[in-house]
Amino acid sequence: MYKEFETRTSYKYLSEVIKNLKEPICILGGWAVFLHVNKKFQETQGRPYLGSRDIDLGFHVNEKSSDNELRDSVLMQTITILKEKLKFKALSFRLFKEVHTETEEEIEEGQMVPAHFVFPMYIDLIVDNIPANFSKTFNFNPIDEPLLRLAFENSNSKIKEFGKDLLLPTPDLLLAMKITSLPNRDKEHKKIKDICDIFALLWYSDIDIANINNRIRKFISEESIKTCLTEIKKEDVQKASPQISHSTEEIWRVISVLG
User: What pLDDT is recorded for position 155?
Assistant: First the structure.
């Protein structure tokens, strides 16, 4: 699905970013799934779980924040560190740097490199609320994930990784996020990765799968779940199967507990 170089590079920068940011640091997306399921997956499969190409960072933003409060926020501090200390460049709600796929060195600005040797390493900034004055203060429109606020409200969501306390959505909350995101995927590889992640969270995390229906429905509607399951096609599961070394039948059987 993803090249080993891409996920290895992403993990390297995940470590570097976390070590340089101020707590609380909230990890979302593929690396959050990895941190929940990798231990059991590796014990069973003898290899690490799928990594991610991008790094997703989550932030709590009060929807009534003043301009000054936004300028003093953890999000603004994070952007400053990423741009000034770690030399990421801004691109709307994302920050990125380009890495040479052969030398594995960062590509300097103005350096001429053929496009097929360039790996763009992205960090996506995701918030739980968008105040009316957000774009004026930050000069971009963010990705919002309303379920993210529940991660900040749950004090049991912290883990220790890379020497820092990370805020990690619980597996069932992360599963709810994956279910709502899958139908909106415009790239096939992201949809297949979502299917892998949904299966992995159900099978390899500490989710109580027997009670998962009650848990998930506390976060999202029955309609959202049905929409997600409808969007998962036979050919999608066939493509996900070799990525996680489970048969298509087993993937269907496990995911179908949601319905």
Answer: 60
Distance separating alpha carbons of residues 63 and 231, to the nearest angstrom: 32
Tokens at 200, concatenated? 């992995």
Bridge partners of 25? 166
pLDDT number for residue 140: 94
pLDDT tens-digit profile of 178-227?
999 999 988 888 999 999 999 999 999 999 888 898 889 999 999 999 99
Q: Which residues of 33-71 are buried (b: 16+ CB within 10 A; e: fewer)?
A: bbbbbbeebeeeeeeebbbbbbbbbbbbbeeebeeeebe
What is the rounded end-to-end Cα distance, in angstroms, of the chain? 27
Yes or no: say if 128 and 150 are a contact pair by the CB < 8 Å rule.
no
